[in-house]
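Chapter review: from sequence to fold.
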Amino acid sequence: MNFAPFPIIKTDKLLLRQVNKSDLNEVFFLRSDKRVLKFLDRVPAKSTEEALIFIEKINDLEKNNEAVTWAITLKEDTKLIGTISLWNMQKEHYRAEIGYILHPNFYGKGIMQEAMTEVIKFGFQVMKLHSIEANTNPDNTASIKLLERNKFIREGYFRENYFFGGKFYDSVIYSLLATD
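The token string follows.
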């Protein structure tokens, strides 16, 4: 798969475009806000420098065709409100993991559903993936509902398989096959 030129996706309400350095403040917010990070078990970013390093990292992954991350924006306002990515690719197995985050002001508005529909389509039709995986916290009911609404099937429940902040957490793995 080659992510150059960057695969821009347009939907009825959204423009999914490349994340760039002008998104620095929005990326910093998403990587530091406690509401966004509630189920991500990640240390909050402490500076915009950390956000810049993250932007450079995802851009490098795209240049190396190892992952693709879209900035989720409204069509009428190209300000980043979230991200969605296909990453953690296992090319030999035609499998990738989907990951997504959204600004809390946009929760419950169908935005992630609209973005996910098109990213799944891209994964199967353009990238020729056989399966897409999702790894979520079992307490993240909004994410689980989104995955199930998109026909993802629960593959496994891993007990205390993730260690963060001095505590063990469970994980739930979902997958969607191209044939589903």
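Two observations follow directly from the output. Residues 48-63 form the longest helix (16 residues). The two ends are 22 Å apart (CA to CA).
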